[in-house]
Amino acid sequence: MDQRRTMPENTKISAFVVSYNRADVLPTCLASLGFADEVVLVDKSSTDDSVALAADLADRIYVVPWSPTVEETRLFAAARCAHEWIVFLDDDECLSPEAIEFLGRELAAPRADAYALPHRHYVLGTHDPDACYWPEHQLRVFRRGTVAFSDTVHGGTHVLSPNLYVVPPETGVAIHNFSHESVFRWIEKSNRYTSRPDRLRPDDDTPDLVAFAHRRIDHWIARSRNAHPGSYAATIALLRALYDTMDRLKAWEETAGIDGEARFRQARAALSETYRTLPRLRRRAAPAAVVDVRPGPSEPARTEPGPAEAHDAAAAPAAHAHDLAEIKRAYDELLVAARRQAAELTRLRRFEASHLHPVLLGAVKVEREIRRVVGQLRRRLGGT
């Protein structure tokens, strides 16, 4: 039975988003939260236009230091919210129109303390209901005090109330998630998430890493539909298994006590020590001068030539003219040589062909050289 509790008229809704460098999606994300009575943005020191773009869509913006995952900032963001009901999204998520309508009606007479919405992934730019990610749910709406946040990656949202409503996927209510537009993006995020010590991990600690990888592929294929070879659904299953395999490899590395950086340092130190004994390596008398040509923190990239570039630009026409004069001089010398060869040919016509052969070879070489120099001259003149 649907037993709803009507909210008092003065009960309002807060919404928060944690963002970092998602200026492409953030405006759409914040616009979908326009039904909330306040929208709070916590930005993790973005270097793109995220904060500027959010200024007209958020009521308050907090800029905090960067951290690798969203879980480490959600508790801070929730504490900035003033109202009883809280809706939150990641910066690559947007509510469907059906979700906006649903929350407007539902929170006027809520049936639960927390709500999990269908999570509509768009991986490689596509959502496919045959893929293993559909339908998954994410908790994104709760009454204050019924949810706790921790830093655990992919496991940092904890429902404290037994009164959780899971919205059916066939309703159209959903969160559109635009997080992995490419394989590169998937691997980048997977590497970042699996590097966090506090993370949700697959429940499989087998020492056989190859068998583990095969089992994870089979696991995600089994959750897919129509995952025939080469299909999108099979590709997504493989990406999911790749994430799990990266996670397991890092756990193995940690358990085995492998410190690759320390090993590299030792190897480099041994090489450096050996280099000191090699007589063929040059010893520099003084450190090299350092010329920093980067723009300063507030200095725009220079488009006008500096003194050195201006000197080079001023010297360029003179150098160009000098090159042309050298080419013309060589050309004149070749013409003189060609005339001499022609006179020699005329004089030697009475001799047999065998006597003329060396002269003919010389004439051919001269002709080739003339063609090369003429071509070079034309290119030079064409560049003026």
Automatic annotation (TrEMBL):
Residues 14-125 form the Glycosyltransferase 2-like domain. Belongs to the glycosyltransferase 2 family. WaaE/KdtX subfamily. It comes from Rhodoplanes serenus. It holds the Pfam family Glycos_transf_2. It comes from the Bacteria. SUPFAM superfamilies: Nucleotide-diphospho-sugar transferases (SSF53448). InterPro entries: Glyco_trans_2-like (IPR001173), Nucleotide-diphossugar_trans (IPR029044). This is Glycosyltransferase 2-like domain-containing protein.
